[in-house]
Structure formats: structure tokens, C-alpha cells
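We emphasize that the prediction below concerns an isolated chain of 640 residues; any contacts that depend on oligomerization or on bound cofactors are therefore not represented. The input was used exactly as deposited, without trimming of termini.
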Amino acid sequence: MKALRLLAILWLAPLALQAKVHKIQFDSQRTKSGAKVSIKELNPQMPRSWDGYNYVGIEFRVSTSQRFLLGFTTDHGYDELQVHSYVPGQWNRLVIPLVYFREPPASSHDMASMFNKPRQTGWVNIGGNVGPMTGVDSIGIRQYRPHKDSWAEIRNIELFTEDPGDAYYGKKPVLDELGQHNLVEWPGKIKGVKNLKKAWKEEEEEEVSAENLYGYSRYGGYLSQKSQATGFFRKEMKDGRWWLVDPDGYHFLSVGVCCINLSSGGGVKDLDKRMNMLKQLPPEKFIQTNRRGGRTADYSAWNLERRFGPDYEKAAIDLTIKRMDKWGVNTIGNWSDRRVEKSNRKAFTCTMHPAGVDSGLFGLGDPYEPRLDERLEASLKPLMEGYRNNPWLIGYYVGNEPTWVGSEDRLCNTLLNGPDRAMKKALQEYLAKHGDSRESRISFVYETFDAYLTAIKRVQLRLDPNHMNLGYRFGNAYAVTERLAAICAKHFDVMSFNGYALKPDTKLMDRLLTWSGLPMIIGEFHFGAADRGLGQSLYQVADQASRGQAYRYYVEQGFTHPGLVGLTYFTWNDQDVLGRFDGENYNCGLIDVTNVPYREQTEAMMETARHLRAVHAGEKAPFDKLPDYIVGMERGGDEW
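Result of the prediction step, given as a C-alpha cell string:
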């Protein structure tokens, strides 16, 4: 049966290549622009009811790597998700599981793993209106704030019961021999290894001193402002403004970057399914096989060997620290290379992972389980044993972007309809006592969170009493209520949240500071552009120069707030051109796959670092020039 189905697909493929092409021209003068195309015009054999099918394959090409919205008109309304194409300008077939249209995203421990779904020629971000795929009569494609009058073309649509896989129909390789995007050109693009070595040499000849450039202490604090030294990082309020204090007693504002890894931003996963997308494979030493037999090629590691030779680790670490010194970055953020952290040359943060977090509970732990402390200690001891007496560690985050916040009722439904567990029993008993209402369910989840944090703090103080608890990096800080903030204040030293926006929301920070009384750290933010063939990030600007402007605007506007003591840019390297583990392929790095920095971005960071202390102290006005062409993560709506 499978063989017959495959033959049918192969037989139909030439017909699809001859199908009528429907072009959708996006209007950059409109907030949202697009069109719907009749399903019957694309494939007359398509049924209106998609019951019994599990996948839909769409043959299309789009002129840009800027994300677009793709949806279907059904009996119950319009279902839509976001698509990011890895192959701008080229024909391809993207196959999307229909469960993404039929059901809400399944529970997961954080927002990225819950909503991002990888494929081979692109990736999708799910969420929104869902329901039965019946009465399907049209497909819609549109873009929010389309850039430079981009367009999309579509020529075929098919249904499948089993996943046939994506297909790349282009004749030009997607990646060149350096791991750069081969389908897109840009000013200054590296042409060959010879030019690459020239760019590297210029950087290596520079002499850098963070003390001379920014007046930093050895830990990254400000030599001009000294307080009591305790040997570890702590917090302090002075003249109505919060500061961190480094181990030597110098006031400190954490200017960090996430994922400071030696090799990243050039991996090609599912290699055997993408061989026709590559111009040249790296040597075998840069191809790894995972436990499932899948192979991954690492171009960025290959470029490091091209730069420093086969024993590149020490030289790469030294260069990383030098870059941090030059750019004014004084904190190694989450998910960074332990080899860089353990060099003990820069302050760093880390996350208590897994710390009892359960993906089936939307990122919440179950404090009702027996022997909880024993399990938490087993989880945290390997991490904290090595850090207990390390002065370079600022503190620990408990977790990242828990998806239960604002979705307490759904968490309770999942529990009640799920398998037996301690937390389910506790919920049933709570609702029997207090009544089953939305308010009761929220109260139960909040009390559960409080109990979970109580256990976390108890174990942390036993294993490592020297370092701060930096809280949860809330992904949706707007869903944090006054009651939830008060719970955080009992257990955390810092209130943390991730803030992807044009600038930090002053009213939100005022509210969180008032409710919790805690200083704040923004755990993630970034800006990207679609001019390098990668996805444009969660917040898009026009080009690389605008990324630098956006960084300055965000950071300096944010640090005018008296409660902000740190923020962390996401990330150090561009994400993988053909998608990381969850598909994301954002142009959000300070460094590209060839190990060359984005000069416009890093020079802007240097300018901000020169006077950031004065901005936070209220002695200097912040940068106030808005970047060009700003696009957030907006979706939905009725405009076409």
C-alpha cells in the first residue's frame, strides 16, 4: 500500500509542476496584505472534508525569508499559522501536520517548544483558531507589514495520511561552502575562504581593554561606584535606584548575551534529507550522528578550524572573552558554553534545569509528589556543587517561559483529564472543598506554584546559600497578576521576564516593581532582519544598521527605569540557517556562521556601554532614535 501511494505521489508530481501558478503580491503600504485562493483552482481533486487525512502539502515559493501567515477557510472559521521559509525565491513543498490546525498546541515546558515546529524546507509557529478541517474551500496567504513589496506564488496542494516529507525543487544549493545562505546576496558577503581569513586577521590585530573602554572592574562592575564587598553578587538600592553589586563591591548592571557558544549558527540537521540543499559538505569530523541515527553537519565549527586550526578551543574562548570586553558585554547569559563560563573571566547566570519542571504540566513542577526534596536535590546538586563558591556566578533562574501562566484553567483541565498523579489528586480535593470555578482553579495553581517555589528555595539554600535566585523568566509578563508577583517576592531576589518589544514596557515594569518590590532583569530580547536569508526574529527591523539602532533604543530606554538591573540579548551566534532543534532560524546573532561579527550591531552596543551607567543613574538622556521598519509578532485579524 505504501509503495502504491509513493508511486501515486511520483506520478502526480509532474502534473503539479505544470499547474497554474497563483501569484499573491503583498503591498508594503498596508499593515497586512494578502489574498485567498480557491482550493479547487489549485487541485480539483481535493475534498472539502479533510477527515481521515493527517498532512497537507503546499507547493509554493515566497520572495523573502520574512514570515508569512498561511490558513484555510473552514466551516467553523479561518484557521491560520505562521510559516518561515528556508528557501526564499525557490519552489518547494512544505508539508504541515493537520493537527496544528485541528487542536491547540500540546503542553510543553516553555513557549518555544510549545509553538515552534520544525520541517525541512521551513518551519511553522502554531497557535490561534483551531477546529475540524471540514468545509475547506480556500487557502489564504498574507504578510504583516510586508517589506519591499514581497510576493508569494502557489501552484499545488495535496492531502496525505502519512508524512511524505518536504521537497526542495530549486536547482541552486541553499547553503554555500561556508554555511552562508546561498540564495540571497548582501553587501559585504564573504566570497571564499581567502576573503574570510582577511576579515579574521583585522579583528585579531586589535588590542582591547574593558577597563579602558568602559571603566569596568574585573567582574564588570563600575570602578566609579563602590559599595560593600561580600565576595559574591548581590543587589542594592541607592538613591531610589536598584543596582547589582559585584563581589568586589562595585555597582554592576548586567549587560548579557544568551547562548555564548563557540560553535553555533551553522548546523544542518536531518542531513540525509537535505543533501540537495548543500553546495559542499564539511569534512566527516564535523558530521555527528545522534542517538536516532540522524546526522548533523556543523559549518560554524568547520569555520573555527579554518581560523585557528584543529585545536581551536582555547583560541576560540580567548576570542570570545576579547569580543565581550570590546563590546561592553559583562555577563554570559543562559545556555552558554560551560567552557566559556568555567574560564572564570566573565560573570554568568544559569538555569536550574530541570528542577522538577514537567512538560506535561505546562512548565510547572508537582510539589505534591512524595520525596520531592530528595528528587530536587538529585536534580540540582550536580549543577550547584560546582558553583557554590564561585564568585563569577550572579545567580540561578528557576525556569524559562512557563506556559501555564495565564493558562491556569487549561492546566487544570489537562490534569483532570490526564493520568493519576499527586497533583491531580490535590486538585480534585481542592475543587471538592472550594467549588469548581475559574477563581478556584487559579487559586489552586498559584498555591501549587508557591509550594513548588518553597521547595526549590529550601533545596537551593541547602546546596548553595551564596548566590541569588533570579526567578522565573516569564514569557508573558502581562499575565503576571499582583497575587502571583507577591508569591514571587517571597522566594526570588530578582523578578525576571523576557521582553520582545520595541522597548521595555515602562508601565509593566512599574507594576511589577510595585507588586513585588524586587529589581528586574529582562532575560531575552532581540532584533533581526530578513536581508541575510534567515528568519527576521521575533522583532523585525529593516536591515543590519537598524538592528544596531534598535539595540541602543531598547537598552537605553529600558535602563532609565529605576528597577531594571540587567538584560540579556538573544543570542551570540545567528541561529542555524536551516533551523535549530525546533526549526527557528533567526538572524538574531552578533556573529554570523563565518565567525564574523555584525559590525553595525556591535558598534551600537559599544556606544551604549560607554554611558549606560550614567543613563541608569539619571545623569544622561537615553538614545531616542527609532529604528526603521518595525514588525512584531502580530497575527490574525480580518485585514487582507
